[in-house]
Amino acid sequence: KIKLTYTFHNHFIESVRPLIELIDSLKLIGLDEDIGLPSIAVVGDQSSGKSSVLEALSGVALPRGSGIVTRCPLELKLQKLKNGPWSGIISYSGHRETFNDPLKVDTLVREAQNKLAGKAVGICDELITLEISSPDVCDLTLIDLPGITRVPVHDQPEDIGDQIKTLILKYIAKSETIILVVVPCNVDIATTEALRMAQKVDPEGLRTLAILTKPDLIDRGAEIDVLNIVQGKVIPLSKGYIIVRCRGQSDINDRIPFDKAMEAELKFFRNHHYFSSLLDDGKASTQCLAAKLTKELADHIKKSLPSLTEQIQTRLLNVQRDLKNYEQGPPLEEEMMGPFLSEVRALRFSDQINELSRTGHSKDKNIYISLRPVFKKWDIYLRSTEVSFKARVTEMIEKYNEIHRGRELLTFSEFCEYECVIQNHVAALQEPAMATLKDVRGTVSFIFIVFIIIIIIVIFHVLPCIPQNMVNDIQTKQEAKAEKRIKEFINMEKLVFTQDKVLQQKLNDSDIPQKTGIETSDKNHYDDDDTIFNSKGCALLDTRNLVPEKLVLYYEIIYQRLTDYVPMLIILFMLKDAAKTLRHQMMELRNGADVVKLLSEDSEHGRMRADLKQRLERLTQAQDLISNRL
């Protein structure tokens, strides 16, 4: 290979690489998603000689063939080495491969296109980057775009032409892009679709450079017309025209190497009757094209830097302002997500869920306001069963001899029968007690989940599916514990027991002693030293007709225990312990959890904030890069 000679000074050559590297670095951090970056896009109709031009500049054979060969945008990064071996890197869609054989370029590019666009004939707008480092190339970055076609062939979609034009416009419509239009000399330049597209987005021709190819194929007598085009007399372009003669198909078939082809090109222009002057003017040959493109790109980058810096600063201020409308969310860095989860989100949740369970208050929420009606309903139900309980006992007394009397003598009564009435009545309270438990579970679960939504979605805008599942799992386990304890307490009430002093106080507060005459006589005569009824007092009270009233007094004791104890059990298990467990599990979330998935934001609000954060990071990095390079 021959080394390219340049028509500009070495100090300029040395200044080009940092400028191109700066733009490459800005692309690498994704700044081109926010701001258009200086670049050169290569467009041309099919069979315009576009691939030949790029091959001449890069020194490697690119995919060739009939139909659409370039099916994905190909970013060609050329880096001139002072010395050292040839090396290449191809990267796309997360794949990156280094190789040292230039003959592998064709195969690797085709493989990349097949993976991105399929093995058929479709196109794809995903970028393939081909980096070539060699002493025999110039410092230059180009983006090769699919050739323009009009008529679909083979299995191409009917709108393939429109698809290609849309893809091309995506690049050349940007004001920061230099449009490199490749046009064959042997066609009417004014009718080429590539130039027409360039004129549409760059009507004054300020950022369009045209390359004329295949000068050896023009008809005799048409040389003057081509000369006029190159001299800008037909369609003026501020960046002008360059005419080149690259390897043709016969040269490829004859395996003419690139260096021999370039020597033949120079010889062709030197000896051409009309075009030799163009070589002297720096408007002909691949060497002139390389020098022209490098200078144009470098100048373009230099001119763009002040505007680019201003755009970055403006966007940065706008992003910072927009971010103020969003509260702090999860960090974007994976290594920071665990600490954030435990120290920020979990701690904040922990503190507030603890306050909610302790006092019932959390901002405008008071959980006990929601629970009190449930417990009141339980209390009303218990109180309402007193009437049915007394009626059942009265009926039993009235029909005792006919239905309940066993082996006992006449006028005697069996306590077990009375006990059965109490036990059956208490047993019937189990179902409504469980209903109360389920009502409380629903209320507490709903409030917990709403609370999570308020804390986690509104504040952090993270989808709280895992904490919601925690609430359900915890409440299910706590409900089982509470159900077991309530059943135990119901069974305890079936034992029919209370301390003598408790029942004595109930009797003293009732009118039963008056009915027996105890109250009107010397009451102490019927009491033991501890003020409990003695045998005489109990004998006066031990009459069958007083049983209903005495059992109703005992039911008061049952009522008092159940109306308080069931709600207390439920509060303990379903609220206090559940909140404690939930708080603990929230604190332990990051241990063994996929925090990236856990903290993935799924709301529009969250996605917008994440996008703004990423833009802020890109713009800040870009600002630093430009400041350090200038």
Give the spatial strand order of the biggest sheet: 4-3-5-2-6-1-7-8-9
Low-confidence stretches: 1-9, 458-463
Could you describe the largest sheet, including whether it forms a barrel? 9 strands, mixed
What's the Cα radius of gyration?
46 Å
Number of domains: 2
The CATH topology of the largest domain comes to Rossmann fold
The averaged pLDDT comes out at 81
The helix content is: 55-70%
Beta-strand share of residues: 5-15%
Query: CATH H-level name of the largest domain... which superfamily?
Result: P-loop containing nucleotide triphosphate hydrolases
Overall number of strands: 11
Report the CATH architecture of the largest domain. 3-Layer(aba) Sandwich
* Coarse shape: rod-shaped
CATH class of the largest domain: Alpha Beta
Structural class: alpha/beta
N-to-C span: 35 Å
Total of helices = 22
Provide a concise account of the structure shown:
This is Interferon-induced GTP-binding protein Mx1-like. The protein is of the alpha/beta class and 630 residues long.
Descriptive account of the structure:
The chain is of the alpha/beta class. The protein has 2 domains: 39-310, P-loop containing nucleotide triphosphate hydrolases (Rossmann fold, 3-Layer(aba) Sandwich), CATH 3.40.50; 334-599, Dynamin, middle domain (Four Helix Bundle (Hemerythrin (Met), subunit A), Up-down Bundle). It has 22 helices and 11 strands. It has helices spanning 10-28, 50-58, 105-117, 160-172, 193-201, 223-230, 249-253, 258-271, 276-280, 286-323, 334-359, 367-398, 400-404, 415-427, 430-460, 465-493, 500-509, 512-516, 535-541, 547-587, 595-598, 604-629, and strands spanning 39-44, 74-80, 87-92, 95-99, 128-134, 140-144, 177-184, 208-213, 241-243, 361-362, 365-366. A hairpin with a 2-residue loop joins strand 10 (361-362) and strand 11. Helix 1 packs antiparallel against helix 22 (604-629), helix 12 runs antiparallel to helix 20 (547-587) and helix 16 (465-493) runs antiparallel to helix 20. The longest helix is centred in the last third of the chain and has 41 residues, at 547-587.
